[in-house]
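Dear colleagues,

I hope this message finds you well. In preparation for our joint manuscript, I am sending the CDP-glycerol:poly(Glycerophosphate) glycerophosphotransferase (Niallia nealsonii) sequence together with its predicted structure, so that both groups work from identical material. I would be grateful if you could confirm receipt.
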Amino acid sequence: MGKSIIFFENLNNGQEIYNYMVEKNLELKGNLIYLDSNPSKFYKSKWYRIYDKINKILKIGIVNTISYFITKKTIIISGSSGAYQKNLSNNIILLNHGWGTKSTPGKNELNNPDIMKNYENTLANLKYIICLSSFDSTYYLNNEKLNSSSKPTFIPLGSPRNDYLVRNINNNTLIQNIEKELKINKTGKKIFLYSPTHRDDKIRSKEFLNELLIQFNQIDKELEKKNYIILFRPHYYSPDIQKEIEKFNNILYVGFDKYKDVRPLMLLSDLLITDYSSIFVDYLLINKPIIFHVPDLEEYSNFRGLVIDYENLLHTPGPKIKKLKDLFLINELSLSQYDLKASKHFFHKYTDDRATERISKFIKREFQNL
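The corresponding structure tokens are as follows:
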């Protein structure tokens, strides 16, 4: 039984590396196994989680699973690490889906023994964590309450999915195709991508979305007057409000269930609106302005925990607003006062389109040493 690299997908990162290795034929002399999951269903349904685990075992193959359990002749590329993966490999490489904003573990998790135990197991299971910059190692899985004798090595090589963004910044054909798919004409209009993160408390999450619907109703007509369009992309953990959004004329629903890949929407947009989501860290790579809609900044910071300072313009390079109607008070001059380039280089060691190549070569070296 030969060696294998198993990709447990996490929002395009694993797929980008898998595709690169197949296309470049890196002469690994082993198997490449790609396993995908739906993160929204995984979060919301325990039955999907059971199905997902069984499905992964079947895709790997029962004989292969037993072999890897015995020999550990695998490298696992994953967005998270559990006991199941540890049973198959001593070489687990984490590709986290979002960097630069939130405490991990969160403040709301510190007194939950089960969650903290999972984090400790993750620390013990991982060999490497591929991140964006040296800043990431200062906060990610770095808490005095985590008791683990084993610490993974942080290696800032970039995020594979961001290669697509950098490569297509000026791809007008791609952008025109996205316009057609969304049935919008961008000529003379300004496109805002609004992508807030979820609230960990389910009650607060519903309250937040209800508050947004009220604010959307208040600004819909003014958006039309200004020739603005908002592409609303709620977090894939958030409750479904597509039907409520569809009643607005100038706010389009572009959720995960409708558009799995957010990157084309990022390229189409002229400006990002977000709150505490790490999407803005990726958005910095395409050199477009950002507005931070933070109506519950103190509450979110106290409950979930943040690793950046919203008064520090290097950390959050854009205007801060409490109400969406305040969008209309922001002009090009006020946006130009923020140094997006400085922030980009704070969060990213590399700002090119070669993260997939760097990580693939790193994995190849590890694989040859198995």
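For the figure legend, we might mention the following. The chain has 16 helices and twelve strands. Residues 202-226 form the longest helix (25 residues).

With kind regards,
E.M.
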